[in-house]
């Protein structure tokens, strides 16, 4: 299907380097504009947050691990001083400022950032169905969603999604819990344990010996023409995006709790791994809505699947795929194994993303091990894609100059967004850890 681009030169040096599989660090010349889409407002994000609040009593009831947070699915924001030292040594930079880890790897219910967008979208569908069936009104206590007659009602409806794994987990677990008939279309890079876990929860899992795009399009096809089926479209869903964007205000509250100042003199720099772009795009959108130009947001992708960077640099967004420049899209970062960016996010974030870095796979394992050794925090390879982006920014004199950060950078707060990992079985995690040593010696 892909038509390989014959003359890469017209896209410039960076795309050429990407086509050769080299690491890049791209600064978005339009990042400075900080321009938001008129279609997605703070009010939309607040409505999503209000929905999550309405469902909190239900979530608390059916997922007791959310008891302490009152049914709100949120993750800790942690200082990682020992890792900060280790990273400075590994990268040969002074990490001026404070380095924090946003532990979405340990989000309750599904153990990845997908618990934000994915669960929001399923809850929104459930709310629509319940209202349509006359079972609920906005003022009710949503604990009733746990009752058997709700489950019976949802059994007449279905949910479908295509995924590399983590979105499938999030959609599958939440949908099955509510009582929906849920089907997860999994791409070949999805891990076996994720499929098994989903089947255990009662989801139907269909496996493809093919890429993420294929899994999504098969899911879309299966849902088409079925009015009682809701298809979660990872390549363009606004409800996913809004669920991710609620992270903005929540992060702002956590920063206040941790006595972190963000203003003209105290920049906030955020680093998020990127697959199709929905999760990092939504989170960035929410954060920039709150902090505006004081926040700088960078994405990180694997060298074999840099779809967002390619879409942004060429301006072609979802009209170009990594296969078009001769890349195979294969990476150990299974959550990031995506060849074509979201049709929603590229255009929406065109004037908001500050930059994108790419990383060689073997480094992911080294960072995974370094974090485990230094802080005893275990995250999956995908979640480690950002760990050298901090250094890239600190060493990028032009970037610092462009934003007058040269002196302020010492007072900056850096947040590495750890996007997944707490549900990875320990034997599998040990294998990742062991790979750090074997690939390091290579
Ligand atoms: C999905 C995922 C991402 C990226 O999210 P996208 O919406 O695909 O860009 C990053 N890390 C992990 C662990 C993920 O599961």
UniProtKB/TrEMBL annotation:
Example GO BP: isoleucine biosynthetic process
Secretion signal span: none
Domain of life per record: Bacteria
A GO term, aspect molecular function: pyridoxal phosphate binding
Record Pfam families: PALP
EC number(s) from the headed UniProt entry: 4.3.1.18
PROSITE patterns, sorted: DEHYDRATASE_SER_THR
Cofactor (UniProt): pyridoxal 5'-phosphate
Protein name: Probable D-serine dehydratase
Organism in which the protein naturally occurs: Clostridium aminobutyricum
Gene name, Swiss-Prot/TrEMBL: dsdA
């Amino acid at each position: 299907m892909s038509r390989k681009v014959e003359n890469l030169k017209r896209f410039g040096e960076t795309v050429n380097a990407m086509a050769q599989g080299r690491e890049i660090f791209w600064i978005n010349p339009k990042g400075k504009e900080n321009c938001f889409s008129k279609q997605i407002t703070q009010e939309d994000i607040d409505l999503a947050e209000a929905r999550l609040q309405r469902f909190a009593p239900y979530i608390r009831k059916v997922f007791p691990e959310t008891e302490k947070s009152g049914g709100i699915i949120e993750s800790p924001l942690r200082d990682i001083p020992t890792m900060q030292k280790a990273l400075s040594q590994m990268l040969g930079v002074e990490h001026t400022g404070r380095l924090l880890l946003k532990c979405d790897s340990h989000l309750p219910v599904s153990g990845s950032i997908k618990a934000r967008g994915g669960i929001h979208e399923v809850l929104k569908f459930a709310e629509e169905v319940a209202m349509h069936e006359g079972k609920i009104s906005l003022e009710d206590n949503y604990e009733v969603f746990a009752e058997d007659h709700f489950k019976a009602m949802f059994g007449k409806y279905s949910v479908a999604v295509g995924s590399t794994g983590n979105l499938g987990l999030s959609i599958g677990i939440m949908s099955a819990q509510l009582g929906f008939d849920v089907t997860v279309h999994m791409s070949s890079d999805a891990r076996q344990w994720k499929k098994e876990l989903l089947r255990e929860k009662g989801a139907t899992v269909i496996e493809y010996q093919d890429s993420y795009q294929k899994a999504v399009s098969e899911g879309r096809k299966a849902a088409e023409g079925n009015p009682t089926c809701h298809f979660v479209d990872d390549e363009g869903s606004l409800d996913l995006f809004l669920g991710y964007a609620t992270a903005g205000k929540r992060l702002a509250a956590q920063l206040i709790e941790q006595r972190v100042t963000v203003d003209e003199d105290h920049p906030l720099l955020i680093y998020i791994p990127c697959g199709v772009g929905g999760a990092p795009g939504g989170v960035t959108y929410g954060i920039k809505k709150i902090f505006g130009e004081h926040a700088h947001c960078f994405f990180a992708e694997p060298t074999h699947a840099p779809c967002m960077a390619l879409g942004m640099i060429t301006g072609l967004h979802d009209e170009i795929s990594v296969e078009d420049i001769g890349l195979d899209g294969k990476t150990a970062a299974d959550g990031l194994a995506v060849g074509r960016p979201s049709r929603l996010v590229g255009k929406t974030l065109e004037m908001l993303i500050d930059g994108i870095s790419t990383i060689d796979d073997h480094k992911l394992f080294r960072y995974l091990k370094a974090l485990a050794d230094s802080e005893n925090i275990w995250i999956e390879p995908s979640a480690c894609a950002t760990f050298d982006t901090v250094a890239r920014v600190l060493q990028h004199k032009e970037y610092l100059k462009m934003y007058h950060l040269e002196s302020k950078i010492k007072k900056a707060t850096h947040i590495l967004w750890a996007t997944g990992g707490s549900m990875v079985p320990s034997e599998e995690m040990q294998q990742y850890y062991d790979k750090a040593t074997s690939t390091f010696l290579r």
